[in-house]
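Case study: Probable allantoicase.
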Amino acid sequence: MPRFTALPDLALRTLGGSVVAASDESFAEKESLIRPGRPGFQAETFGNKGQVYDGWETRRRREPGHDWAIVRLGLPGVVRGVVIDTAWFKGNYPPHASVEAVAVDGYPSPAELAEAAWAEIVPRSDLKGDAEHAFEVTDESRYTHVRLNMYPDGGIARLRVHGEVRPDLSLYDGLSLDLAALANGGRVIACSNEFYSAPDNVLAPGLARHQAEGWETARRREEGNEWLVIRLAARGIIRLAEIDTTNLLFNAPGWVSLTGYDGEREVGLLARTRLQPDTPHRFRLEGDEPVTRVRVDIYPDGGLARVRLHGNLA
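Here is what the predicted structure looks like once written out:
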């Protein structure tokens, strides 16, 4: 898959995305488009609407036009690439699809979105059945919604909208916020080891339900320790650090330390501190120097469920 797939999926349901409207969902529900994970399938599993599909499927269209679904991005941002996945749709996939995007402030209704000025970010393109189709996007605009068009009808399993998060941080003027949160524009930009799971997981919203929803390294057999570097949502002063080892019973790190950076300047935030397994830890930080990046060192290896760095914009 192309490099853009390493970026967050801005539309993912677990990151707040929602399929707010669709022209039709007679055979399979529109909400499946943004579910996490690979689409599943079990042959000869029939319901009242026919074979059960883990995807979005419309009826056979007998009139002119095409089907569409509008997705509100859970994380507004700049779209770098789109993946349209027709997994398991072999005789009922659409032969063509396109994607449009729009930025609308506030909380628009489907009717208001229908009247908005949409921009095409993926032109009408050929699709194959039971395949992933990756399309790079070069548009630099910030968007809040996308519209998936399929021509004329059929089934699509998943829609992935990868990009860079661009939230409206003006909402936090005078308030504190989690400077590391993916939803606020935080991102893991470097990591020593991601053998079992992706480091960006530690910045995800909510609580990790199991080990795979956090970050976990391989067992380290040499000297040293594992680490990751977080680019903060914006330059800020960190007041409270949360280091969560929930679900990590026998593979939690023994210790953690935090170091901040502002350009080339290094700021000690938290000295090497002992951790307990399966425990949310909260540490007050006494410094008042602003930073733009934070290095999280774990000793010697293991995993973290979540990292929260609460503070104020500088």
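For the exam, be able to explain this: The chain has two domains: 3-165, 170-313.
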